[in-house]
Amino acid sequence: MGEIRIGYFLEDIAQEKFLTSLVERVAEERGLAVGCLRHDVRNATEGHGSALTELGRFLRDVSRERESPFDVLVISIDSNCQGYTTKKREVMDKIEAAGYPGSVACAIPDPHIERWYLADLGGIRQALEAAVDFQAPSYKCEKDHYKQLLRDVIRQTGVVAPLGGAEYGANIARALNLYRVGKADSAFKHFCDELEEGLSHYMAR
Which of 38, 147, 157, 200 sits a CA distance of 20 to 30 A from 140? Predict the structure, then answer.
């Protein structure tokens, strides 16, 4: 089996740690060897504009090539309380305007990626190897609410996480119950479905 090129346009390290691991897990469950994946991570904060502005610039740059440099491109931008549908439309507008030719999977946590970290109590307990306890609201639109809740959960283990919990992103993505989280969070399910479709397309070629 040849190399599978997975591109990423992400906002921060919390997205990177969680999503690269989640992609590997989904790929494994599709029968693909993790060793075949090549991750190419681009960070929106490397530019000087908003994440959407930087996304448009990034897509225009890669679309100048005759073929997509990636087998699947993962784009992740937090909804920031605008809602999944609104933010997804903004992302799709950028993709269409750039004429990007490849397969895309959009990860749009609503409102922030830390909500996905906290979506499965059993998964986070397994990832942290500790009987932590918390009750996350089904949805709360408040700046940094989920970031602070994640820090508080990790603090129960006696650890202060300098990256705000991103240190555990890969382990959490490996441990959480995909079906349960997808059933509770439609944005998460949409991403997993798009990712599986992109990987299936690659396997069929």
Answer: 157
